[in-house]
Amino acid sequence: MLFSQQKVTMIDPARALRGRDHSVLKEPTFHEVFGIPVTSVPKGSEVIYLGLGCFWGAEKLYWNTPGVTNTASGYAGGFTPNPTYEEVCSARTGHAEVVKVVYDPSKTDVEQLLKVFFENHDPTTGMRQGNDIGTQYRSVIYTTTPAQLEAATKTRDAFQIEFTRAGYRAITTEIAPIEEFYYAEDYHQQYLDRNPFGYCPVHATGVTCNP
């Protein structure tokens, strides 16, 4: 992706694309790994939204994480309702690429999911991950409960110590309660299961922590 200042500057809400009133995901869409609707939240599960660069690799990372019961690729943190992928890539929606992570709190906890998050991308690079440059690739954590919000802040602070020790800059991860999540198009869902030779690596730094 060619670098441009527009790609790394958040759009003003008044200038964001208008979007549409219907989802770009065609239903019903069943999860290629879990075999349930990608929109499903199994009983007793909790949800958190995590953005760590390209959502193809991030979604695969989490569907392989023990205790996760469903995942979906989508967009959050911006201003355009029901955006298309092309619109998000234009940097005119304000959205980040995120994964909706549904998990069973009796089998894992949010701290473990956040550990996976911080260990599998570089949260210090602002509007980029690796060669992917743009506002949609920024590091984000969008929570659904006060406990998640507290855990995200504490985990970030613990990892900041380790990133600083390893010579990295300040963590730029955006942490906030979720406002709205929009599902991505069907062809993005579980992309690396359907296309096992597809290219979308996570960008682990080797920095680890047990907060």
From TrEMBL:
Its EC number is 1.8.4.11. Residues 48-200 form the Peptide methionine sulphoxide reductase MsrA domain. The active site is at C54. Coiled coil: none annotated. Has an important function as a repair enzyme for proteins that have been inactivated by oxidation. Catalyzes the reversible oxidation-reduction of methionine sulfoxide in proteins to methionine. Keywords: Oxidoreductase. It catalyses: L-methionyl-[protein] + [thioredoxin]-disulfide + H2O = L-methionyl-(S)-S-oxide-[protein] + [thioredoxin]-dithiol; [thioredoxin]-disulfide + L-methionine + H2O = L-methionine (S)-S-oxide + [thioredoxin]-dithiol. One of its GO terms (molecular function) is peptide-methionine (S)-S-oxide reductase activity. This is Peptide methionine sulfoxide reductase MsrA. NCBIfam families: msrA. HAMAP family: MsrA. One of its GO terms (cellular component) is cytoplasm. Belongs to the MsrA Met sulfoxide reductase family. One of its GO terms (biological process) is cellular response to oxidative stress. Transmembrane segments: none annotated. The keyword Oxidoreductase applies.
